[in-house]
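Open question from group meeting: does this chain pack into something compact, or does most of it stay loose? Before anyone orders reagents, we agreed to write out a predicted structure and look at it together. Recording both the input and the output here so the notebook holds the full record.
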Amino acid sequence: MGFILKAISFCSGWLAVLIEGLCLMAGLYVLCDLAEEFASYAGKTLKVSLYTICILHLLLMIDGSLPFMNILFGIVAHVAFVPLLQTFPYFEPISLKSFGALGVTLLNHFLWCRYFVGKNNDTSYYDHSYQVDVRREMMSSTRSIVGFFLLFIWMVPMGFFVSMTDLDDALPGGAGMGAQFESKRRKGFFKGLVDFVMRRDPQQQQQQQQRNNSVYY
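Structure tokens returned:
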């Protein structure tokens, strides 16, 4: 009986993770739609969020409950997104600015993962002895770690990812002419990636939307 219960719990747990992942993807897709419709507001929101997260990093630095170098690099990782605001919502995927922001974000994620889940038995890794207690307290709650990662590591990069548009799609030579240019020009990078994976054609989507509108009206 114990084996059956463990097997059911294991399968149910992974099913819940799958459902949560699908809900997250659907939510990001909706946010991408909103960012396309209200690009100026999206840019202002990202700018305010970026500066707010940097201020929160400074408060953590003053508090001293987390390693100084991790917090300092977290600030650097967010400042790396400032150049992308100059051309928002358009960006060049193959550029130093894009690769730089992506690189420091991944390294920032790695450093915080190493801090929270790494086997750092040497107390010299911490700036102060009470940082060990803070780490243990946060490790006791998965929600605390996920919340920290969501706010201090993932929120700003994910916001840029779902709201940025490939610069090539904004050029007449990269998107064609007429209505085709307009529809492709306004498609975000994340939304275009999802549509490519799902094999969704923009013209078919527009026709489907017109059919849906004809049903309601």
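Observations to bring back to the group:
Residues 2-37 form the longest helix (36 residues).
The chain has a mean pLDDT of 74.
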